[in-house]
What does this fold into?
Amino acid sequence: MIKLLILSLLVVQCFTLRDDPKYWSRDSGDSLKGEILKGQTQAWFTNIVDHFNYQANQTYQQRYWYIDNYFNPSIGPVFVYICGEYVCPGVPESRQWIVTLAQRFQGLILVLEHRYYGQSMPYGKDSLKIENMIHLNSEQALSDLAYFI
It folds into this structure.
């Protein structure tokens, strides 16, 4: 509950600051091109296949990335970037705003790949069989995010 409150406050703070140019303007020499791809580290964590069946204990490996180049653990927030229903490359170059936030606030970026997409397949190569797609829904995906956080 506390984590959800902190995340909510962070989102509100970001929307409050969005129109303040001192947080969003960059010097002309401060280019992020290419920096994103070099600064990302791919990792895996063990997630639960069915978050709502407490008798089942089946797990799978879900892929995520992190960027900790700007992170100051004593004051920095954690930004969670959620990939949509596609093969997640980490932070794509078209979404550099999250890197700007991390730089400005000395934050950590975590990027989570959606279940059943990319390499985050709950049933391995059999994940896309009809009988195994029962766990491909928004409730499970949101629970993945909560469990990850």
